[in-house]
Amino acid sequence: MEQKNYSDDELISYLDETLPVHDRERIEEKIKNDFAVQQRIKELETIHTILSDQKGIEHPSANFTEKVMTNLHTGRASGYFSPTQGMLLLLGLLVASGLSLALLSSSTGGQLPGLIPQEITSFLKNKMHLPTTSLDMKQIINGVTAVNLILAFILLDRTVLRPLFQKRSEGIR
Question: Residues 167, 92: one domain?
């Protein structure tokens, strides 16, 4: 008896029932006798079932290629802020950083005096025994200032530096 290894294309044709009768019979005989072919046919049947259950292959629109070709040389869509928006955000971040640095360097030691009157705080301390937590305002202000400055540098890069260097590199070509 002839030993023939069947390709996946032949096995798929067998599953699709598009093979001639004599080829189909040979493959059925091979499936009965060869464990490897049995395993492969099971794998292909699973794939065949999944693919046949789909509603159909989606096709692109008729003018898809034309749209791609016409837009091929157009500029990329910008995912960045406009320069005006970026500069306003950058200015706001710098003002916030400046205010937090001013608060940090003031003689209050990171505390905001006068927000809650002394009478209320002493009354609350005497009447209510709230748990006290120790927050170091200087560390909090340092953290906020660091985050503001990092955001400012990122914003400066995206709104000012990248467009500037992109225009320069396009002008060189």
Answer: yes
